[in-house]
């Protein structure tokens, strides 16, 4: 009788960061809505001007500043009464750096400017590197599944295993079975995203899991 063996293989690879995406905002509060908006734009202009220069130097791969919010709120005072309206203007800026030294100088300057909020830095690899690394890790995950399945087969005195099904986690099915909901993405990247500012490049971890079904005589 043929023996069916179902296992999950996994593998991961660490890769140095190649990209850093920084999020900033020119955020101004004031009693006059038009003035708050004008002050936010006054910060945005030199900020985006510097990003254009860094892009020309190939230190910045891409950047954008296309998200603008203007809203008002009335804060409560210590006696539980609503105060006068406060108007807030926020202009979002995002930039992808490839030169980490210039990124450090850029943030060192703008984090000290009144009205500028630094949201954080997300580390990543380039799209080209990700495709190469993912392919290598997927193969390693399949190799891991083969080793596991063969160990099971050997333990019960069976022969060489042969793969009959491969799938992303949770998608492996048998006769009459419905596909299960995927348990995880095929890969995940760790990064330095968070409220704190971390200028140490985070090591990127690419991890792959694969479900596999084998048969052994």
- The Rg value, from CA coordinates, equals 26 Å
Beta strands, count: 7
State the shape. elongated
The main β sheet shows up as: 4 strands, antiparallel
- Helix-strand string: EEHEEHEHEE
Question: What do the pLDDT scores average to?
Answer: 87
C-alpha end-to-end distance: 7 Å
Characterize the quaternary organization of these chains. single chain
The helix/strand class is: alpha+beta
Unreliable stretches (pLDDT < 50, length at least 5) are: 178-197
Helix content: 25-40%
- Count of discrete alpha- or pi-helical segments spanning 4 or more residues: 3
Q: In summary, what is this structure?
A:
With 217 residues, the protein is of the alpha+beta class.
Describe the structure.
The termini are close together. The model is unreliable at 178-197 (pLDDT under 50). A 4-stranded antiparallel sheet has the order 3-4-2-5. A 3-stranded antiparallel sheet has the order 1-7-6. It has helices spanning 33-56, 100-110, 127-155; strands at 3-15, 19-30, 60-73, 86-97, 116-124, 161-167, 204-216. The radius of gyration is 26 Å and the shape is elongated. With 217 residues, the protein is an alpha+beta fold.
